[in-house]
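User: Second chain of the day. Same drill as before.
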Amino acid sequence: MLVDVFEQYESEVRSYCRAFPTVFTKAKGAYIEAQDGRRYLDFFAGAGALNYGHNPDSIKHKLIEYLQNDGILHGLDMYTDAKGAFLKALQERILIPRQLDYRVQFCGPTGTNAVEAALKLARKVTGRRNVFTFQGGFHGMTLGSLACTGNSYNRAAAGTSLPDVTFMPYPFGAMKNIDTIAYIEAVLSDSASGVDKPAAMILETVQAEGGVVVAPVEWLQKIRALCDKHDILLIVDDIQIGCGRTGGFFSFERANIKPDIVTLSKSISGSGLPLAIVLLKPEFDKWQPGEHNGTFRGNQLAFVSATAGLELWDSLNIPAQVETKSAILQKELSSIAERLDPRIELRGLGMIWGLDLTPLKEPTLIDQVTTKCFEEGLIIENAGRKGQVLKFLPPLTVTETELREGIDIVEHALLKVLK
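Assistant: Same format as last time:
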């Protein structure tokens, strides 16, 4: 099959396929194979939806077994054995060991719907409309989530106003040397600030699409304290960087904080199947039956794969793997930046890292690099405010050999482009 059929019949809204113009047919582990038989090392991992890689055997076998036994495929929000098994596994393997007391809400199976649900609930609980979000953040493409997203390109496509949100400074770039906590405190404490007290603050502890910007632990702790002081709910969007990406299962574990609401999607299903959940403290579970619903909020196959994924979390000792591979990424990428151009900035932690080419002031370089990487067999994307950050997002289960192979391809691509 040629790409012509897609270019002829598919909407112009398509995006990733433009950067990786080939027809893919199968995938396994850290590799995805094209129709012509060429294999590509995948450092994109479904935008963070494939933390366990493509088609992990133990998950695949559970799915096949479930299908062969005529397991329920569609169940709305009815009680099913697949849902029950997932809820039990999530409690026993993840929440209880971390002393996290959360109810689980199943919403439409996308990250943006989880964010919509979280925002609606915060407004319902507090009776307030405004929400504080942060510059550089990305939370989704539906209107409520988009209102909390900073990217002007995405916001412009809304075609309507995006109200009831106030953007606050994130400790990065021009704001890095400014006391952003003091600024937020001043806004909240000043009756003449002109800013309505929010129902919630929503943030990513690592802004992935924002260019792999890591929030300092102390800053996160102060945000938690600020929310407590002013009776504001804290929502952590862990959709892309949760499920082990930063080392702990949740990205906020490193700061030893407990959000009031957490949104999860992408890799929570363990397999790339669509699933999204909202974790909420019991005292904030003020929903009336059906107030936030959706036909596909009971993705039974995703429950099966999610349960199997949580088993892999333990059996593969994912935190230890992330620690080892994070050290490799940091060391090797830092060395590449120093050798090629010391102006290149490296940011990240765990298994998400970014090489920021912004200081080179050559905006076309990044596209040349990702194109060269693809030509040499590596799928990797760019991110950041002007798309100038090369974002490393390999599966958590990538082998050290595969990891070094991908790093070598990136270095070769950079050498070609920067020569």
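The first strand starts at residue 24 and ends at 28.

User: Great, on to the next one.
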